[in-house]
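Give me the fold.
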Amino acid sequence: MTANAQTPLRIGIVCYPSPGGSGIVATELACELARRGHAVHIFSHDVPFRLDPCRGRLTYHPVKAPEHPVLVASPYEAALAGTIVNTARRVRLDVLHVHYAVPHVSAAWLAAAVLGGEAPAIVATLHGSDVTMLGRDPALRPVLAHTLEHAHAVTTVSSYMAARTREQFGLQREIEVIPNFVDPAVYAGPPDAALRAQYAAPEEAVVLHASNFRPVKKVEDVVRIFARIARRRPARLLLVGEGPDSPAAYRQAVAEDVEDRVVFMGTHPNVAPIFRIADLFLLPSADEGFGLSALEAMAAGVPVVASAVGGLPEVIEDGVSGLLFPPDDVEAMAEGGLRLLDDAELRAAVVAAARRRVLERFTSDRVVPMYEDVYRRAAGR
């Protein structure tokens, strides 16, 4: 039974399967759309990180690129386009929604060229480093600019990303801002005392960071901030995720003499119970297109200390629903974290304001209909 009174759509969603923000949002959007009665087809080179709990009207299509001695790189773009073509011919997709531009937008256009009059409308959502990092590459920029300019609709997850996209590619077209979202019911509820006891003593504060551990997340700074907090009060640091900077984070923990108080938890498809046992969330990134993990912390009632970069000021009202500081200011972030841990009144006010902000702007019930509206306009439905 669909929550949308209009005719259900046949929607293709293209994403990466990894536990980064773009893949998580795309997967959870696919699940929400399926629950609302749409037929959803998700394309990726592996099962997306948070796809397992969702079934029903959602179909996963694996993309497998062939290997051959003459190929210097995997022809993933062509394999993705071919998989889209084969599926679209069979199920007649109305919309193809690609998350993260490289190489998904160009693959969508290649598929559309093959499908001709049977091609679905193309909707592209830009999340962050697909514009701020890869978009600067002169070998990629012309194709990205052309395909984005001619897509049926382009969305970004923040006004910051919309401005960067126009600046980076010189686009003249409309770019709609549709923020990331959470299901607040998933993050609501009391902390699991037994789970918390596995990681920290009652007198210890639980400090949390969750990311893909890429350099932009500055996980070494997370450890530096935690070390300054831990010198002044009992605390444990939980690091959720993994990535290229995991070894550097461990080395930093050793250098700060806190390795016995830092827990590397690896990746978890269900992070809500971990968020609920935390007392403080750290996100000192060098840049963020949006900052989904900060939003998850806010929904779970965990006060956030983050850097005032990218889309984060659109998520967190500094001094109201969290604390923002200049990037690289480790000392200030540590002091801010200690204030939130030690001042119960301040902490309660920040947590309450953060939860209100999530409910007012960033719930699945508010955001998913925005995408449905974009799809219908793009597809003429």
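The longest strand covers residues 39-44.
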